[in-house]
Design goal:
Helix content of chain A: 25-40%
Distance between the termini of chain A: 30 Å
Largest sheet of chain A: 9 strands, mixed
Number of helices of chain A: 23
Shape of chain A: globular
Structural class of chain A: alpha+beta
Largest interface: A-B, 86 and 86 residues
Strand content of chain A: 25-35%
Oligomer: homodimer
Radius of gyration of chain A: 32 Å
CATH architecture of one domain in chain A: 3-Layer(aba) Sandwich
CATH class of one domain in chain A: Alpha Beta
């Protein structure tokens, strides 16, 4: 055993080291591709090295799977069958032929999602008094033009000039090269390498380059006609708002913009107090070109986004101490390029060492981890991966993705980004609206300013109607010497300078540098944004909750915790006796009245079969009404994962399950309070394995394992 | 007083009688307009009568308002200001200029909506084990073509041929006639009446008629050019799904279709058991041409829809007895056309008398009423109005709208429609998918069928590849003599007949009428559909919850009940003493840990001002930490509407509020358990008005009203 452990551990080290190399090489390739000076050969060579590394990586991973015997292997086929049969997730509009990338949630997934959203709302919004909003999906174009979305999310497309059918240009090129090589078995390897080099860069060409290449490779549409010139295709769903058809709208690709544009109202609502967070749960839409199966890349999805507005000069968080000791699995930038190993350290250390940029960002990472644990995600399959420099937007300070491991690999499920002042800045500028917060100073501060004197006559002659705009611009800049200084310098050295498109001459304005007492400082808040992909989290939770009982591989179980489980309790009669049925109804009614979703199964199937059915949809508890119940009003309560059963008065059932669901007690406590009984799955008392204690109670005689609990 | 009451009551009778006349005349006008044989004169005359009735009605209503002194008058201006300032509802994308018909919900409305949805889910879905689904908003065209939406929701539009600007044709015509009459003060009254007659029918003309009229009235676009011919404008938002741009999609105008297309999977999930209900909560979208202010007619809205599938031969409901004694305010078809008065009768009577078509429909009406009461809607402002025959779709059996009275009048907020088999039928036919449920018979039944014999040779010669389709069609019809009989009759009398487009001749098939034992009956379920407009309900709840304190009109209160209130408790220190602040934090923390949304207000404003702020957002309870708290750990707890305060140990606060919010106890019980104290709004003990009992308790000395509450 020891030697096997050693082998696996060494192999893991090898895998980790290789993963770091792959990441490093990937970054190298991206840097080369970004740099317009890079030549195609250099890029091609780097891509080739990357591909070879990936092949070695795959070999090592296969070796690892063989070594560990795939014991915990996830049976995708059985899982997928269960997910579809129990209507967790099904393709939308199936009977009409379906639509790629659209999925419906069925009854158990709806309840699970509702519980997850409820938990999210309590964990984030309620606990921190965040300002929740619900903005519309329909978004007018100017908003998304401002945010940059109208110009982003584009892939190059071409059309068949005969039929109008559209294609992704890079995919056509890739396919054409594949076909060429396939059909030319005698092609010299050097020539082949030239083609492959072009193929590897397919997504990096300009429209003009790709147009030339499509002609070079004789790509023609299905109709036999050549393709149209390539053009960018935007991934947002476009529509038209209002009857005129002139007002372009999009379905929002994220929920955040609705919060940014409402910043001033939110700040007022919060009585001007900073920092504060706004949050939104709602739909996002992306017209994906090639949606893959499952809930991981879909065209319509639920998001939960938090925008925490904070003074860029002070990104501390008042509640940081409450999470400072929480340990997280962090996969920092340097580790991705170096050791290839994650670090498990406390949030406090991560901030202290500078690994995570600031307290607020780290605070939310910890809160996200706690949320995932709260809803029952497997902590061993969670990690935070830092964005490489090459991955981040130019304005971002630091980004960490919570990645969840599923059978599809490590999937980004929650982004944590420090987006600096970018979002408020662009909307403020586009709408000419100040979006500022105020820091009241405890003591007034001296501030260096410029005092201006204008030659109004010259200004009027030069700028006419714009005269006041120009003087206003300069006055604003003069409020802070550091912003006015470059202008002063330019006017002195060059005699003129340009401010917002206006050419200012030295004669127009004179200035003196002076100081002024200020009692408050205005600033554009930074935004720290945790952004949750609820659909991906839901899917990951389904995978993490799924297992097959060791004793019987056919028996699938979803181990949802009682807080999020779609149904909280099953109620089953052991026989179809009408008296037993009445008790079942009475218990179910009582559970329902306490808002505990209940599953009644009076079918004639065996008790074992009925337990199995309730296990499949993850019902944590099952109450069984048996012959004793009719005599003494006691019932058995079975816990799903341990299959341990306790015996308790039927009148205690609702309160016990309510308290467990509301985290006011635990199953462990219940096992201490009530006798544990052993019965087989047909409800008959079984021989007790191991030492037992026989208990006589007012509710009857029970056996209980002696070494209990 | 008595005589005033008499006057008002007589006036009310007059108003009701007139309302009936208005309804009757309205129905008359609709019937005339529908009937293509009606001439314009008759319609015009009927419309004129209707308008005169409406004028009289307005006069009576004004008289009534004057008589009752407008005491309970709703102050829209104050209400609107509050709604906007406290961010209940705000226009979307304000800083970018906004978009008509799009609104955002701010923090208190989001919490209120979440609580409302949660209550809805528990009241309907959980209690009745409905199958909840979440289908996509993006919907491919064939689905909505099948449902009829692609051909419905159209208004006639014209374009300015120069600028392309669009207009509603009927509105242009109406405006043109207004202008003509305005500019022709000497126009003879007969001529004027002719124009007005045309104006009244503006929305009833065909495209050709309206085109002619626009020319006749010399309507030209803003550019001076004539309008384009009129064309239908669909109210659905159109988009394109997938990169090709060839797959037309719409944003769903209702959520129901997603449930209908999943009927077979849902039935399987329900183990083939009938009846059952599916439900969905989600967004709907309608590209309204002229959205009015407020939440009553918007372009993006939240709906909750239930589709209850039932055997058309048996529309009883197992839980009907549980609501049979519930009284509802019903405004039946006959009363709308006759007395003009509603009837308050029990659900049981309504079904027994045939007023409501069936048990299931009536059951849901009662459940809707109970839901409205549960979330705190004013029962005096709720009624169920039956659709007139002229209002219903041809396939519908019976429809009742729950109308809620707000300052905009009686507004339809929940539809209850028995839609018969229409929805499943159209999807089954369009997709060639059987959508049937099965009734297992306790005892086999004899059934009359036709036994067929085909002349296969002749069939083959005539229909070639379609041979089997034709024989299959006939075999299906032959399974029930009643469906085959018309064909048999036609073949015998005419020698031929047409079945689904195929011409069948007598020689092709012979038959014998016989009987067969059947053990089950297949049927297309009927759909009974309660459809909730959540946005309208939310808005109505805001109005019903709003009042101004008698003592001080400036003090606005939202009387949300504790179950749905956005925040459950305010916690306020009486002074800014750090010790008091620590207790405030401790209590707030404890409330939050029990998931009770809490509002902490440590501002320096007076206690009265801070109570008023918390009243504005409808916080039902306020805990005040005062000087005594620091001595004996007791706090006061104030109830919002009565402003009664009780004194209790701070450690009891969370449990008490949790229990009230979860309906496990009441404020009345709390007043019995804890001493009532009187303090002024600055937290100082006030002189007790009326007889008091002075209580000495371990928590201090309290005065308590002698006549207990």
């Amino acid at each position: 055993m020891a030697s096997e452990t050693f082998d696996v551990s060494a192999l893991q080290d090898e895998i980790d080291a290789l993963a770091a190399k792959v990441t490093k090489q990937g970054a190298e390739v991206r840097t080369l591709k970004k740099n317009s000076a890079s030549d195609a050969d250099a890029i091609g060579a780097a891509v080739k090295v990357l591909q070879e590394l990936k092949i070695s990586q795959k070999e090592l991973l296969d070796k690892m799977e063989a070594a560990t015997g795939g014991k915990d292997a996830f049976n995708r086929q059985v899982f997928d069958e269960l997910i579809l049969r129990k209507m967790f997730v099904i393709p939308s509009f199936e009977i009409h032929g379906g639509v790629k990338g659209l999925f419906d949630l069925g009854p158990p997934a709806c309840a699970l999602k509702a519980a997850m959203i409820d938990a999210w709302r309590k964990h984030f919004i309620l606990t921190e008094n965040m300002l929740e909003m619900e903005c519309t999906c329909l978004t007018p174009e100017p908003v998304l033009k401002t945010s940059g979305h109208v110009d982003r999310f584009t892939d190059l497309m071409v059309k068949d000039t005969e039929t109008g059918e559209c294609f992704r240009a890079d995919k056509l090129l890739e396919d054409a090269i594949d076909t060429l090589i396939e059909n030319s078995p005698t092609m010299p390897s050097e020539e082949k390498e030239d083609h492959l080099r072009i193929q590897r860069q397919a997504d990096a060409f300009t429209p003009e380059e790709i147009d030339e290449l499509l002609i070079k490779y004789e790509c023609v549409g299905p109709s036999g006609k050549p393709y149209s010139p390539s053009f960018p295709f935007n991934l947002m769903f476009k529509t038209s708002i209002g009857p005129e058809g002139t007002s372009v709208g999009y379905l929002r690709p994220e929920t955040a913009q609705g919060l940014f544009v409402n910043f001033n109202r939110l700040l007022n609502y919060n009585a001007q107090k900073m920092p504060f967070a706004a949050a939104q749960i709602g739909l996002g839409f992306r017209n994906e070109i090639a949606p893959r199966g499952g809930l991981l890349r879909v065209r319509e999805f639920c998001m939960g986004e938090i925008e925490h507005f904070v003074n860029p000069a002070d990104k501390s968080h008042p509640s940081f101490p409450s999470v400072a000791d929480k340990s997280l699995v962090l996969f920092g930038r340097e580790d991705q390029l170096g050791s290839g190993k994650t670090k498990t350290i406390t949030v406090g250390e991560a901030v202290k060492s500078g690994l995570v940029n600031n307290e607020t960002l780290a605070y939310f990472m910890a809160r996200t981890q706690l949320f995932m644990e709260r809803i029952g995600m497997d902590p061993a399959r969670l990690r935070f991966r830092q964005h490489l420099e090459t991955e981040m937007a130019h304005y971002a300070c630091d980004c960490w993705d919570l990645e969840i491991k599923s059978s599809y690999g490590w999937i980004e499920c929650v982004g944590h980004a420090d987006r600096a002042c970018y979002d408020l800045d662009v909307h403020a500028k586009a709408t000419n609206t100040a979006m500022l917060a105020t820091l009241k100073l405890d003591q007034p501060q001296e501030k260096e300013v410029a005092k201006l004197k204008f030659d109004r006559k010259l200004l009027g002659k030069t700028f006419k109607g714009d005269q006041r705009v120009v003087s206003g611009l300069l006055e604003t800049l003069a409020e802070d010497w550091t912003t006015f200084e470059p202008i002063a310098t330019a006017l002195e050295s060059e005699g003129k300078t340009t401010v917002d498109g206006f050419e200012i001459e030295k004669d127009m304005v004179s200035w003196t540098k002076t100081t002024k007492k200020v009692h408050e400082i205005k600033f554009t808040p930074s935004v720290i944004e945790p952004s949750f992909g609820m659909g991906r989290i839901l899917y990951s939770l389904l995978e993490h909750s799924f297992y097959q009982r060791d004793a019987d591989e056919q028996r699938c179980v979803m181990k949802f915790n009682p807080q999020v489980a779609p149904q909280k309790c099953a109620v089953l009669p052991i026989s179809s006796n009408p008296e037993a049925n009445a008790v079942v109804d009475e218990i179910a009614q009582s559970l329902m009245e306490s808002d505990l979703a209940t599953r009644v199964d009076k079918s004639t199937a065996s008790l074992g079969r009925r337990y199995a059915r309730s296990d499949e949809v993850g019902v944590p508890f099952a109450v069984t009404v048996d012959f004793e119940t009719l005599a003494d009003d006691s019932v058995t309560l079975r816990e799903r994962d341990s299959t341990v059963q306790i015996r308790l008065p039927k009148s205690d059932v609702t309160r016990l399950i309510f308290d467990i669901v509301h985290s006011r007690t635990t199953w462990e406590e219940a096992m201490k309070k009530y006798p544990v009984v052993t019965v087989n799955e047909d409800g008959e008392a079984e021989k007790q394995v191991g030492a037992t204690v026989i208990e006589k109670t007012s509710r009857g005689t029970f056996s209980r394992p002696a070494e209990k609990i």
